[in-house]
Specification:
Blueprint (H helix, E strand, L loop, with lengths): L1 H10 L10 H15 L4 H23 L4 H24 L5 H21 L6 E2 L11 E2 L6 H21 L4 H17 L2 H21 L1 H6 L1 H24 L1 H4 L2 H6 L3 H21 L13 H6 L8 H31 L2 H14 L8 H28 L9 H8 L4 H5 L7 E5 L4 H7 L2 H4 L3 E7 L2 H6 L5 E4 L7 H18 L3 E4 L5 H10 L3 E5 L10 H6 L5 E4 L4 H4 L4 E2 L5
Parallel strand pairs: 3-4, 3-6, 4-5, 6-7, 7-8, 8-9
Antiparallel strand pairs: 1-2
């Protein structure tokens, strides 16, 4: 499978002059496979395909363009891409990434050698800038050099992910150098920029997720510092020393770069004017070139900006479509995204807004990888929650305390005053604070601090405790959220707790999200008086909790991943 995918990655555009992308063949095979096998994945493909058909017809009718041939072609391509995305999502975990990267590197390396042998062949494209420097740009079997640079960029992102998530491999590292060399020869600024943004994001999320092990190991500290310096030197060196990259820096920053004008500035201007001319109905699918609207604006070539093209054609429906796709991916990344998913999301958004075609299978494969990585994390969390749900039903039982704080029971905690775990207990005063105080057998021998309102009942209850006052009132208060978010960053950066526990209310939200950034585990206890309806705070923190505890069995229908440990009281 890996060899086939590697060949498709290198040669899928070899027939681009005919409009055929070989990845469409894989998409068609996946569609038929799921259809014949009556796989439950086909239900999702069927629903999304239905939405695509309705969208295509609605855009043409609403815009007054009755070119249903163009709409049918758009729908067919999108349905094949949906099938390809679903297949990628379901199979990304089965692909041996190391072997795939090595196979692609070999094919790209051999193709590049052939390009140097046949210097005046179609494998190169003449320099398109106005400076007169004019080096040939490598494009191999892709429509243009910029496309090759994006392909190499995503391969480099996958290479870096493999190197940091598994043991070091000389073959994989060598493959990454091949991808980098080919990208440099393509002189694609877009690929360089997306790579330079996506990789630091990937590394940052990885470091944050594994900060404890890295900080405890001096060798790891030195390794990551070296990686950062090497990446910085490579990017700065390439941009500064290359005549093509270097000469574009100032025009790019000033918005005068030809590529920037062609892929964003001009398409955005056209989009605004098309919306004004059509009353937000759009020009219609396939109606940007050769139509009355296109001719009046001087549009002679399709937009290089994928998202702006769809929105210009589809009007308000196109805007809804793009917004829906972006938000669906973003929500998955926020809830379940690992470092690779988030890095690829950023890569995909940058590429869609700078080049490419909405119907290009390359984009949908990236979507599939993102969703596959998120599904993998979601499954791991579900397995963990299923394992924990076998705990006893009483929160104050020995097992209940193990679920909250680790492996030790209350009796063991009482006998272990040297426990190194540090706990942040955060909550509003009143009943929320009482919930937390009832957990005293768990936290009394822990290094702990409290974050709550500076009110009489809190001061009385926590008389001998270390208490940090937070801003109140907090319920539905944007001002309170902002102030307490700043407080959360300041406090958690200084204290670095291992565990953040709360029973509500709104003050818990910033401390949970900021706590996750600093590597803390987060446990939320839904209050006792909620029997079948969620609290606002509970809904907001639910996506980032490591343990979500409820006190009524009915609440497990509200929070599917929750653990019912019975009443705190």
């Amino acid at each position: 499978m890996e060899l086939l995918l590697a060949a498709l990655a290198v040669f899928h555009k070899i027939l681009y002059g005919t409009g055929l992308d070989l990845f469409y063949v894989l998409g068609a095979a996946a569609f038929l496979w799921y259809l014949i096998g009556k796989n439950k994945a086909f239900k999702l493909i069927f629903i999304l395909s239905g939405i695509t058909l309705i969208y295509s017809a609605a855009v043409q009718v609403l815009s007054g363009s009755y070119d249903f041939k163009a709409a049918s072609l758009f729908a067919a391509h999108t349905i094949l891409n949906i099938s390809l995305m679903v297949w990628t999502c379901r199979n990304v975990g089965k692909i041996r990434l190391k072997f795939f990267l090595y196979a692609v590197a070999v094919l790209l390396g051999l193709s590049t050698i052939a390009a140097f042998v046949f210097k005046n062949s179609f494998l190169w494209r003449a320099q398109e800038y106005e400076s007169g420097l004019g080096p040939l740009r490598l494009r191999l079997f892709y429509p243009e050099p910029a496309y090759l640079s994006y392909v190499c960029a995503i391969l480099i992102v996958l290479t870096v992910y493999h190197l940091i998530s598994t043991s070091f491999s000389l073959k994989v590292a060598g493959s990454g150098l091949v991808f980098l060399a080919v990208m440099i020869l393509s002189y694609g600024m877009g690929g360089m920029i997306t790579c330079a943004v996506a990789i630091p994001v990937l590394l940052m999320i990885y470091v944050i997720s594994n900060r404890n092990s890295i900080l405890d190991d001096p060798l790891k500290k030195a390794t990551w510092a070296t990686i950062g310096v090497i990446l910085l030197v490579i990017v700065v060196g390439i941009i500064s020393l290359s005549p093509v990259y270097g000469m574009r820096i100032i025009p790019l920053l000033s918005g005068q770069d030809n590529g920037f004008v062609y892929t964003f500035k001009r398409p955005f201007s056209w989009f605004v004017r098309i919306m004004d001319m059509t009353g937000w109905k759009g020009a219609g699918i396939g109606q940007l070139v050769g139509s009355d609207i296109g001719n009046s604006l001087g549009i002679v070539l399709e937009f290089k900006n994928s998202f702006l093209r769809v929105m210009s054609e589809g009007g308000i429906l196109g805007i809804i479509l793009i917004f829906g796709i972006v938000m669906a991916l973003l929500i998955q990344c926020l809830l379940y995204g690992n470092e690779l998913a988030v890095a690829l999301f950023i890569f995909s958004m940058l590429m869609q807004f700078s080049t490419g075609n909405f119907e290009d299978p390359f984009h949908w494969i990236v979507y599939g990888i993102i969703l596959g990585e998120c599904a993998k994390v979601k499954l791991e969390k579900k397995k963990e929650q299923v394992t924990l749900s076998s705990s006893n039903d009483n929160l104050l039982s020995q097992q209940g305390y193990a679920v909250i704080g680790g492996d030790k029971t209350p009796d063991e905690n009482r006998g272990d005053s040297s426990s190194s775990i540090k706990v942040c207990l955060v909550g509003s005063s009143g009943g929320h604070l009482t919930h937390l105080y009832m957990l005293k057998p768990f936290w009394e021998n822990k290094d702990r601090f409290w974050v709550t309102f500076d009110k009489e009942d809190a001061r009385s209850l926590l008389e001998n405790e270390r208490m940090i006052p937070c801003y109140y009132p907090t319920n539905r208060s944007i001002k309170g959220l902002i102030i307490n978010t700043v407080l959360a960053f300041r406090v958690l950066k200084k204290e670095r707790p291992d565990l953040v526990i709360s029973a509500g209310a709104a003050v818990a939200v910033p401390f949970f999200y900021v706590g996750k950034l600093y590597g803390a585990k987060c446990i939320y206890i839904e209050v006792f008086d909620r029997i079948d309806k969620p609290t606002m705070s509970g809904k907001l923190v639910y996506p980032v909790t490591d343990r979500f505890i409820v006190e009524w069995e009915e609440m497990k229908k509200v929070y599917p991943g929750a653990i019912n440990l019975g009443s705190v009281f």
